[in-house]
Write a structure and sequence with these properties.
Number of helices: 3
Low-confidence stretches: none
Distance between the termini: 72 Å
Order of helices and strands: HHHEE
Helix content: 25-40%
Strand content: under 5%
Structural class: mainly alpha
Length: 92
């Protein structure tokens, strides 16, 4: 299968890829040829079919010990280790 320069630019627009005017058909086809020759025998296929699940890590909050130093940098009013923003946090 061969593609024209116009088809490549159109595909670039349809797929939101950044296409260059100097992009040649040969370079695109060479890229596909290179991908086709890549050995993927030991690579598991991943799809978005929902069969595969994403392994999530546990969220762990860690205190880096810099909260007070970061708050000290703010010229705004601080209370209870937070920056008080008018209309968002009411502090009496």
């Amino acid at each position: 299968m061969s593609l024209t320069q116009e088809q490549i630019l159109r595909l670039g627009k349809l797929t939101s890829l950044r296409s260059r005017e100097d992009l040649s058909v040969d370079s695109v086809l060479d890229s596909f040829d290179s991908l086709a020759k890549t050995d993927t025998t030991h690579v598991e296929s991943v799809t978005r079919s929902g069969k595969n699940t994403l392994v999530l890590r546990e969220d762990v909050a860690r205190d880096a010990g810099i909260a007070d130093a970061l708050l000290a940098c703010s010229p705004q009013k601080k209370a209870a280790h937070q920056i008080v923003l008018g209309g968002i946090i009411a502090w009496e």
